[in-house]
Amino acid sequence: MDTVFKGEIHLTRYLDQQGKLLAPLPDIPELPSRLVSCYRNMVLARALDSKAIALQRTGQLGTFASMLGAEAIDVSIGQCMKPEDVLIPYYRNHACQLMRGLPIDQLLLYWGGDERGSAHPAMGQDFPNCVPIATQALHACGVATAIKIRGEKRCAVTVIGDGGTSKGDFMEALNVAGAWQLPVVFVVNNNQWAISVPRVIQCGAQTLAQKAFGAGIRGEQVDGNDAIALHQVLELALERAREGKGPSLIEAISYRLADHTTADDATRYRDNEELKAAWEREPVKRLRSYLHSEGLWDEEQEKCWQEEVNRMVQEAADAYLAIPPQPVESIFDHLYAELPERLREQREWATVKAMPGGSHHE
Amino acid sequence: MTVASKERKLTIARAMAEAIAQQMRIDQRVFVMGEDIGPLGGVFGNTRGLFDEFGAERVRDTPISETAFMGAAVGAASDGMRPIVELMFVDFFGVCFDAIYNLMAKNTYFSGGEVKVPVVLMTSTGGGYSDAGQHSQCLHGTFAHLPGMKVVAPSNAYDAKGLMTAAIRDDNPVIFMFHKALQGMGWLGTERDAIVHVPEEAYQLPIGKAAVVREGADVTIVGITSGVHHGLKAARALAERGVSAEVVDLRSLVPLDRQTVIDSVRKTGRLIVVDEDYQSYGMTGEIISSVVEQGVMLKAPPQRVAYPDIPIPFSRPMEQWALPSADKIIAAFETMENH
Ligand SMILES: Cc1ncc(C[n+]2csc(CCOP(=O)(O)OP(=O)(O)O)c2C)c(N)n1
Ligand SMILES: [Mg+2]
Fold first, then answer.
1. Beta-sheet pairing, B252-254 with B219-223
2. DSSP code at position A345
3. What is the pLDDT of residues B249-287, one digit of tens each?
4. From CA B311, how far away is CA B132, in angstroms rounded?
5. DSSP symbol at B121
6. Is residue B205 part of a domain?
7. Using CA atoms, how far apart are residues A158 and A107, in angstroms rounded to an integer?
8. Can you say whether residue B41 is alpha, beta or left, with left for phi > 0 and alpha for psi between -120 and 50 degrees?
9. Could you give the ipTM of this predicted complex?
10. Nearest ligand, CA A165
11. A11-326 has which CATH code?
12. pTM above 0.80, yes or no
């Protein structure tokens, strides 16, 4: 019998839980300053996260998906992408979106239930959040196809949860990416949970990265709490994609430190011991310890930056709350290039006959 | 005799779970599949307690693979099981619709009646809690339009239990749509009138039979799920003006109980149809043409109060403005009065 295929999945890790370096630093230009910038953005992400939850709890924001525990993944993607690359996010990539230029108040506007917040000019070619699970992976293949047809040196980056990798849409996206050798990078935020369903129920395979084998593309794991490791694997994968060397699947191992969303209560299905253990591995403290030990960051800087991000987030929250709502009738205006007769009638009916309107199961 | 102490008020969510549990106890062929339906008990609470009682083999938390478990439900049903599958939000039907309308709905026909596909597909519908255009649709018309499936949608817990029991025992695929705001989960809005007395023992309601939930003489208001509650509120308000409104709860979309509607409109001569689904090509048009086709004499043109033909906005004020409401039903009645 001949072995016709053999595959291995490697896990990349540079920092241990305490932030101690396990291997020589990867060869990335200006890595120390990039790591400091990465850390700053991770702290900002965390401050934004707690602000958003506080706003939700006081009725000033809609249901919010926390990014607690995913900061290193999101910020590293944000740092490794070039402005001309395209982000095709799911619904938990707020930090990455901020780094791509979305102003904080606009991000809050979206989560406050205003669709204008997901189409800011600063987002360039980036896509709005994708709600139907896994379908963004297919859109990313479309973006990558367009890039490839035009012969550009750019790439598409898309993010998905561990649960999302169970969908046929995801498998089809991997397949077409491999078949067409598209400039796309799939990042899995494997935070171990899909609402109440643990990773073990999603899939019989030992790793999610090995799904790449069936599609004939690169697959690897990375410690999603380790910003250095993330930079290393992402730099490589994105550069390969831009250079026309093919797609990659990166499974980043993290942990969802928060409830699924503010509408969820994870204590109903998740063991507190598991959560406590996960906090020992969390990404922000780990990077801070490393930066401290290298003399790249100190207590004074930490104090100043904490104050600074709190101020930034508070200002953004104030700005968000001051944005006037759209006139309600405008819901009819953004569906077709021109308002069809039928909708004009419905708009009129709603405006004239039903003001002030709605009182739904209060 | 103390009747009051026998009241067993349940939410639709609890009533659904109770119906499923009772059928699972007496019929080993019944099992449940879906996302978060196991230890969590469903994100809308309608499978609570099932995992503890029946275990992981019969109450199966699935991977996020709708195509897989919808297709598997068709396969298992054709092989003699009676699967109940949950599509968490009806809005996501798109990722598994081939299994639903090409297989579940048609396999009996394709086999000359040899193969039965007794699947219950339960799925949440409706908005009102600001969850945007991919979490808030009803899609009544979409499912009712396609031949081969029964479609039911209760407005209260009593009907929910009876229809769920009937759906599980039915040899046809049944789409069981439950409106989120009627589930009795606080954050989705609460409709007190949906929480009603539910007998403990198993019982079955006929699928395809509407109910006159309020009698009246001047106008017929026809609705389903949330539309029934808006209709009842409007009827109470109209009563204060001396207008007597009859309210019909369709309860099933397929088969559709046209006769109950026609009998009512023959009596009142006026018809308003309320639907939280998109207005065009939907339930409202179907009901109106069913009445008109029968030559029922109308005192005024029939009216519809439906969701406009636009995506459901994320913005709370916008969504509330666009949804059907008792006020809009009253406005529609005024249009008829002025006729
Ligand atoms: C097609 C589809 N099915 C179901 C849902 C409901 N849903 C929303 S989030 C979620 C869990 C996703 O888990 P995972 O992919 O691991 O991402 P995470 O939220 O953990 O980051 C589910 C089932 C959906 N949005 N789309
Ligand atoms: Mg997850």
1. unpaired
2. H
3. 999 999 999 999 999 999 999 999 999 999 999 999 999
4. 8
5. E
6. no
7. 19
8. left
9. 0.93
10. 1
11. 3.40.50.970
12. yes
